Structures are given as structure tokens and as C-alpha cells.
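Lab notes, practical 5.
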Amino acid sequence: MEIATPTEGLAPIVDANCTHLILGTIPGDESLRLQRYYAHGANQLWQILGKVYSEEVQDEYEDRVAFLLRHGIAVWDVLRSADRKASLDSAIKNEIASDFAGLFGQFPQLRAVEFNGTTARTLFGRHVASQPGVPMEELRCVVLPSTSWTPGRHVKSPAEKQAIAELTAQLPGVDQVSAKREALRYGAEKEQIRQKAEAQERAAKDADEASEKAVHHHHRWAQAVVAVQVSIALAAITLLTRRRWLQVASYGVGAIGGTLAVLSMLHI
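Output from the prediction step:
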């Protein structure tokens, strides 16, 4: 049985030039081990940011921090501490929120908030929105698709392309109008794929049902044929033995065979 362990968050990456804040939930195990934001190789935040700004984001963490600050982007997590099994956001308990009143008070220019996934937004609403000193009426909050997993490193799905476009549309120093158009386009592509998948699923279900009916129909015919064959055999034995009960049994089995044949023709 996996035990939930206490998790302590990292200090924010922020300076006086930052205008946008990317918020996660709480660092995963790899990030805590290395004391670096988004350190797990499966997380695509750095790759996405590189595409947004058409820059190669270096592997050195100091270079990544400098990249963020150069573009006016702060990074933090909604929770300061919590109990969590492994790195699962669904297994977070006993949450304690970070000091956002202090952050927004110290950096008053920080008013655009991008949540890295819906869980971060939910936890922010639950633990932070009502904190005294948090200027909720001044914040521009947007929920972005989580960067914690993507279908493939080289082949981008419409969902991942949409995530990149949506993030681009929120960050400073980029063509936000074009990014919003791209996000809408990729969202439409994703919806088309979803509808096509649902149509294929319905077609497969209909085919399964038709196959099951056909098998049932043939099964009824097989039962009817067997019953008739047994009835004929009993009739033959009755002629040889002249046993009354065998004659009755022959009629009964024959009637069952006839009934099964009728049920098969009626597809029942």
C-alpha cells in the first residue's frame, strides 16, 4: 500500500519585470529531488515555451530560470505543502496554500495568471481566492491544458498544438491574435477527431450487436435441428420397441424443435 508523504513546495521564480504567472499544483517527486520546477522529462512546459518564443530552452536550470525572467514569466505552485502519493494531483490531501497575498503585494505588476491544468485552478479557487490581500478582481486568470503529459515527443496532436497556441495567446512578447486563431483552429480539429472517434465507436458497437444477433439466430437454428434429429431418433426407436412413453417423448422433442425453428425465423 502506497503511503501519502508530506510535500513541501519550491520558492517562486519571479522578479520585478514579471507580468505573467504560471501556476501548477505542487512539485512532483523529480522536481522536489532536483529542487527544480518541471524537472520530469515527461513534462513539456519547457519545450512548449521554447516553441512559443521560437527559442531553444537550454537544459541547465539556471538558463531556464533566466529564460523565464527574460520574458516576464513567473512560476510558482498553488500549494506550499500537502500530502500526496507519488506525483498524482488526484491524490493530494491536507493542502496548505502558498502566500499569494504576499506575492501579489510584493509584485503588483503580476496580474495575469495561467493555471497549468484544471486541478491548479480548482485548488486556487478553494484555498487562495478568499485570502485577504489577494486582488482577485484585478487578476486575469486562464486555465491551460496541463503540460504533465503529451501523446508523443515528435508528433504533435491537435490537443498539444492547441495547448501551445493557448499558452502563446496569454504570454507577453508574442503575436497573441494569431495564437488565438491557431488555438481555435486546433480546437476545431480536436473536436472533429473526437466526433469521428465517437462515430467509429458507435459503428463498432452496432456491428457487435448485429454480430451477436446473427450468432443468436444461428444458435436457435442449431437447437431446432438437434431437437428434430433427436425426435426422429426417438421415433425410430419407438417403431422398434413400441414403447408408448418413447412415442410421447418423440412428439414432445419434435414440438420443441418446431418451436425453436419458429423462434429462429422470428429472430427471437
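Observations recorded by the TA: The longest strand covers residues 79-84. Residues 150-155 have pLDDT under 50 and may be disordered.
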